[in-house]
Write a sequence for this structure.
């Protein structure tokens, strides 16, 4: 049998000799290994946590506490019929908050539908972040104001958007980075794969964060992918994959900060998988007891992101009464504001249906707007208004 | 009249493919935010050579060879448009746009509305369109009805060399997404045209041939067939007008209705399937608006309701002169 040389350029850039296949481009010069570590990165509870910036720890703590309360209050509002639906991110607060905090204000976030906390962490008003889920507007905020794309309902379609924006920013000479968030189920969609491939080929300054919470509605990860980890999927595209404990806010912040910096300084895209768990059901409308065991939920409760952070703060002597009271107070104020402002139905203008379909409405749209206006006028007359 | 004029003036003779190429070139010269992307658009110049020479002139960033992935191409264009670029996307053949339909329907068409006007997407999606070139399966579909039924998209179909230039410039300049259907069997037809000549803007129908007996209402690749039919109909004593819609969205109802009211007889002609096709919408509208002026029902001549046939059978499917003349004969309406 003739001897065959298999060129493995995956972890050894020098081995990627241009010319061994037609049209091969230059070898990767980036020394970052493509394969993720066997174990997810943890920082909290390790000596590395002692070096963390106290201000960052406190900020993460305040936001996680507020985020937890936000999740609780929003779920309660669905029970009262005040929100149409809410996909709680209870248990995933660390991923969302830490990821958003790894961005600069001029970076862009491309969230999925469960990522209201990340959206709020970008500076979007917490109630405006809920208009989609209440049902009054598709997007209650100006995406340009906070550089936060609309919450995305179709799975993984925001992934190529993030790539395109990052690519355009790089062409403009800006050092803007885009971060796309998605779930484990979303990694099976074609748009995820096409987006990753585009990002790697274009060397776009973009980071992908998969929040692997174990389930896509009811379908467990084993039915979603046969890969050793979702971070492994990066390898085939030629970008590094990273694995992180998604309940460890410091670890997520570190991995994301590194990936964002790498992208910003010309290192190209990174795929990060954060291992986490969705403590609540998929949404208020879902019955999670049909597809998962109580013991599993309890085991993850013991690895709660807020508790992990609290313990770390306490260990460093940073969890003083002042901080606890301050965080609790802010969280309660937020919940009170949600209750107050969602107490009544919003006043909506039916004519807004016809706004913003086109830059200039078509003649047909103008006629239809006239029809609705006439209907509304007739209705108002009947009701004596 | 459109304000989009050609950079290089002077009448010339050329093909629709050349006019489209010049439109891209002039648009890219006039506005550096215009970027072209798609499969094989670089060194090859696209499989129809519509992007020929763009990479040489503007570099591989402005005319970008992408990976082979239509959802990725259009999805990436969405992000580029969000950052202030004007992407012009090439879908290689009409049926290969289908993998990108989710991006088109869920995001391209809706982003302006979803964000209350904050994120308009000035994307042009160029699609080589329709049959008659002997293409095998997936190379000849005519899917304008899907696009036209999706609010938020403009749907444009040029039929002349001059319109190919003018409408593509207008599409690229539009702040809304435009699905730009290029009738591929007209790519190589030569005609005289003037890039500097003013062009009727998107949303205006043009009467290509006046007439006194009835009107053929059409667009894109069926226009030459209708003109031929009108010529042939003279022998049978019919003086047919031919109206070129040029865009389905916006639909120029005023012009279409004026012609139909004045003549009282109309046939809508297109090559895509009839059931749920654009002609169904047009005929219904004309009937609603012109009922009392009609001497006969608005008839339709369309392709059959079959998947696009193999090349050796496509001439049976595509509406030709005879089928149009048969319909015209049926306009002698008697109960
Ligand atoms: C394209 C598409 N298909 C199906 C759905 C319906 N759907 C909504 S959420 C969901 C599961 C998503 O799971 P995952 O990506 O893991 O995110 P998670 O809910 O865990 O945050 C499904 C199937 C959808 N939103 N989009």
């Amino acid at each position: 049998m003739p001897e065959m040389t298999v060129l493995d350029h995956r972890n050894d850039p020098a081995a990627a000799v241009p010319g061994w296949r037609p049209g091969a481009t230059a070898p990767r010069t980036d020394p970052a290994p493509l394969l993720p570590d066997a174990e997810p990165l943890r920082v909290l509870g390790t000596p590395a946590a002692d070096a963390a910036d106290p201000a960052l720890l406190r900020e993460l703590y305040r936001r996680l506490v507020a985020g937890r309360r936000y999740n609780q209050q929003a779920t309660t509002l669905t029970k009262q019929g005040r929100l149409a639906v809410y996909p709680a991110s209870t248990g995933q607060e660390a991923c969302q908050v830490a990821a958003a905090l790894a961005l600069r204000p001029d970076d862009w976030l491309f969230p999925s539908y469960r990522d209201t906390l990340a959206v709020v962490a970008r500076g979007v008003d917490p109630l405006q972040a809920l208009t989609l889920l209440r049902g009054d507007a598709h997007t209650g905020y100006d995406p340009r104001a906070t550089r936060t794309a609309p919450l995305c309902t179709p799975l993984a379609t925001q992934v190529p958007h993030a790539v395109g924006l990052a690519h355009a920013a790089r062409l403009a000479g800006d050092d803007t980075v885009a971060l796309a968030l998605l779930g484990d189920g979303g990694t099976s969609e074609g748009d995820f794969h096409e987006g990753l491939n585009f990002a790697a080929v274009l060397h776009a300054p973009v980071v992908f964060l998969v929040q692997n919470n174990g389930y896509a509605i009811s379908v467990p990860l084993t039915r979603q992918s046969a890969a050793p980890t979702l971070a492994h999927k990066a390898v085939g595209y030629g970008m590094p994959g990273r694995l992180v404990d998604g309940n460890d806010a410091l670890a997520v912040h570190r991995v994301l900060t590194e990936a964002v910096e790498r992208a910003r300084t010309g290192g190209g895209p990174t795929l990060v998988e954060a291992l986490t768990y969705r403590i609540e059901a998929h949404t208020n409308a879902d019955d999670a007891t049909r597809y998962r065991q109580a013991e599993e939920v309890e085991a993850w409760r013991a690895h709660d992101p807020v508790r992990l952070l609290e313990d770390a703060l306490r260990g460093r002597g940073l969890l003083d009464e002042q901080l606890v009271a301050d965080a609790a107070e802010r969280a309660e104020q937020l919940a009170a504001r949600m209750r107050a402002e969602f107490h009544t139905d919003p006043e909506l203008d039916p004519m807004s249906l016809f706004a913003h379909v086109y830059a200039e409405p078509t003649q047909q749209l103008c006629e239809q707007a006239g029809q609705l206006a006439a209907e509304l006028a007739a209705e108002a007359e009947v009701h004596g208004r | 009249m459109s304000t989009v004029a050609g950079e290089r003036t002077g009448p010339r003779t050329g093909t629709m493919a050349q006019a489209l190429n010049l439109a891209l070139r002039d648009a890219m010269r006039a506005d550096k935010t215009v970027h072209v992307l798609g499969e094989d658009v670089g060194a090859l110049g696209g499989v129809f050579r519509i992007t020929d020479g763009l990479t040489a002139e503007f570099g591989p960033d402005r005319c970008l060879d992408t990976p082979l992935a239509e959802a990725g191409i259009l999805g990436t264009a969405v992000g580029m448009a969000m950052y202030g670029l004007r992407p012009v996307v090439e879908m290689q053949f009409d049926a290969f746009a289908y993998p990108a339909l989710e991006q088109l329907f869920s995001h391209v068409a809706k982003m302006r509305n979803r964000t209350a006007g904050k994120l308009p997407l000035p994307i042009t999606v160029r699609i080589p369109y329709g049959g008659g070139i002997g293409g095998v399966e997936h190379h000849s579909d005519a899917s304008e009805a899907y696009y036209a039924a999706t609010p938020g998209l403009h749907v444009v179909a040029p039929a002349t060399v001059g319109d190919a230039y003018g409408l593509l410039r207008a599409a690229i300049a539009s702040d809304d997404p435009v699905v730009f259907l290029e009738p591929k069997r007209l790519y190589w037809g030569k005609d005289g045209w003037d890039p500097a000549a003013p062009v009727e803007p998107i949303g205006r129908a043009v009467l290509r041939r006046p007439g006194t007996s009835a009107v053929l209402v059409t667009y894109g690749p069926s226009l030459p067939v209708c003109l031929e039919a009108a010529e042939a109909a003279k022998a049978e004593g019919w003086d047919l007008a031919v109206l070129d819609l040029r865009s389905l969205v916006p639909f120029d109802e005023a012009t279409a209705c004026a012609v139909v009211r004045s003549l009282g007889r109309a046939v809508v002609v297109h090559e895509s399937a009839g059931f749920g096709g654009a002609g169904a919408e047009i005929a219904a509208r004309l009937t609603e608006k012109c009922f009392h002026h009609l001497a006969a029902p608005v008839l339709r001549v369309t392709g059959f309701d079959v998947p696009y046939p193999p090349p050796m059978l496509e001439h049976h499917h595509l509406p030709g002169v005879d089928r149009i003349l048969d319909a015209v004969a049926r306009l002698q309406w008697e109960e």
Observations:
- The beta strands of chain A are 108-110, 178-183, 206-212, 215-216, 219-220, 241-245, 270-275.
- Residues 54-79 of chain A form the longest helix (26 residues).
